[in-house]
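Shipment paperwork, digital attachment
Item: protein structure file
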Amino acid sequence: MSSDSREELLKEFSVYDKAVDIVSCWESSLNYIYTEEFDRFYFDRFPSLNSGEKTLTPDFTVFFDESYGLIGEIKRTFPDDRQAILSELQQIANYDDELAIKHAEDGYTVPDTCDIVIIIEGSSAPQIGTRLQRMIAEENEYNFISNPVLIRYHFNQDALMSRYEFQRVTQLEFEFQDDDLDAADSLSYVLGAEGEYQTLSVYPKHFSSFKVRKPICNDAPPGQYLATFLWHKIFPEYLNEDQYEMWQATNGQKEITVEVSVDELTERVNGYMHNGTVKQVWVRRALDFLCGADLADADDEGEYSIRFMGFVQDVGEDNIQEGSQQLDQTRELANIFIRRYCESVTEEEEARMEEYEEEEDDDSTEQSGLGDFA
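Attachment content:
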């Protein structure tokens, strides 16, 4: 495969990986502030909202109490074309409805007020905010009751301790409407005018445990992404005591065969995530990716033999920042897998992976894919 193909696979991994980071950042921050504040507080990483004939699947929802909720949508950026922007505005407007969101008692309630937080990356955020504000005014058809609040994020690696930073984009003038929560650290204060638009900083030590426990977001993961998680967290569970001792004694360098089936592996992954929502087709796609990377073989019955070994034991050991080592290891493992895939994949295996992309295009839920916008 060409270097362009390798870059595309790395980009797909990075876009999805960042999205999981962002969801984990918001879950860790809001849980810390509000779990003890409200009895039914609930952060839903995998929402599916019933809106008449449509099923809406934002990136997350948050139920605070009967008075307030939040719907979260992550965008890498926005398009330049006016019609494409209007299409994005319409998707956001779909959330401006009386939508029931999940709470901690495993039920659904329509909050009195429910804002829409749009989280985007990049230095162009002020221009995007200005453009959205102007188009909302010009179109004269958007009368938002649920405020669309624009948030810019940046991963700051220049500081001594790397972190995600979130800031309100004030060019889009809508504010959080959570005044009734009476919480000392309300979003309207921390990220709003009352608090002079502070920066919300979230460090790996805060969000990494959430990401490790729930390693996907509310979009189908690329095969190379899910493959790294399976290798890093799930396949070691298949080793018996003797195999595990051998694996440790050789620093993971001895190849050990792990036999898996798609249905059993999917059950194991969802058990790891505690009632996870991983689909069998996602797991099969990840296993087929490993076949393309010459790390697995599939038989005619749909069983897979994994040639398991360690690749990244020492990665991240020099990083003294708490919570960073596992993140570093996962990203380096992805680099290794993608390089092997590009060197080893056959035309037949590559065609099979392309079929998965075509199946995703047939998804009927109302949601934009991550990173679709240039």
